[in-house]
C-alpha cells in the first residue's frame, strides 16, 4: 500500500534508483496504490550518465528531478491472493513506464509479482527474471 510521498526502489535499468510517489493514478477511492497500479513519480536519486554513452542508450535514461509514470511490482504490505495465499516482499519496488505503458528500461533486475498478469503488463513479466 503506497501513498503520496512514498519512496520506491526502481528495479529496471532506466537510470533511476529511488523515486517518490506524487500521484496515484486510477479510480481508487482511498488514494493508495498496490501491486499493478500506476503512479506518477519524481526521480530522487539516479545513476550518473557515463560520458561515452550515446544513441539509444542515452535516450532511455532518466535524470534526477524527472517526472515519470511507474507500475508498482512489489510492496511491503501483505496482499491476499484469491486462492487464500498471502504475498509480502521486503521492499517497495516499481518499473518506470512511458505513456504507452511500455517499460523505459530494457532489463529488470529482480522478481516481480504475478498480479501484473491481471493488469495486462505482459512486457514487464517477460523482462523479469522471476515471477512470484
Kindly describe this structure.
This is Large ribosomal subunit protein uL14m. Keywords: Ribonucleoprotein, Ribosomal protein. Pfam families: Ribosomal_L14. GO terms for molecular function: large ribosomal subunit rRNA binding; structural constituent of ribosome. Belongs to the universal ribosomal protein uL14 family. There is one protein chain. The protein has a single domain (about 5-125), classed as Beta Barrel (Ribosomal Protein L14). It has about 130 residues and is mainly beta. Strand 5 (about 80) and strand 6 (about 85) form a beta hairpin. Helices cover about 10% and strands about 30% of the residues. The mean pLDDT is about 90. It is built from 2 helices and 7 strands. The chain has helices at about 55-60, 120-125, and strands spanning about 5-10, 15-25, 40-45, 65-75, 80, 85, 95. A 5-stranded mixed beta barrel has the order 1-2-3-4-7. The protein has a two-stranded antiparallel ribbon with strand order 5-6.
Amino acid at each position: 500500500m503506497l501513498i503520496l510521498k512514498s519512496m520506491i526502489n526502481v528495479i529496471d535499468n532506466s537510470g533511476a534508483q529511488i523515486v517518490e510517489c506524487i500521484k496515484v493514478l486510477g479510480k481508487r477511492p482511498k488514494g493508495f496504490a498496490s501491486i499493478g497500479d500506476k503512479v506518477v513519480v519524481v526521480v530522487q536519486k539516479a545513476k550518473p550518465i557515463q560520458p561515452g554513452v550515446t544513441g539509444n542508450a542515452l535516450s532511455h535514461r532518466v535524470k534526477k528531478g524527472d517526472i515519470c509514470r511507474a507500475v508498482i511490482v512489489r510492496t511491503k504490505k501483505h496482499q491476499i491472493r484469491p486462492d487464500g495465499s498471502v504475498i509480502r516482499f521486503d521492499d517497495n519496488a516499481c518499473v518506470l513506464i512511458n505513456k504507452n505503458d511500455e517499460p523505459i528500461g530494457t532489463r529488470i533486475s529482480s522478481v516481480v509479482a504475478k498480479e501484473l498478469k491481471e493488469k495486462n503488463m505482459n512486457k514487464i513479466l517477460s523482462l523479469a527474471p522471476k515471477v512470484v
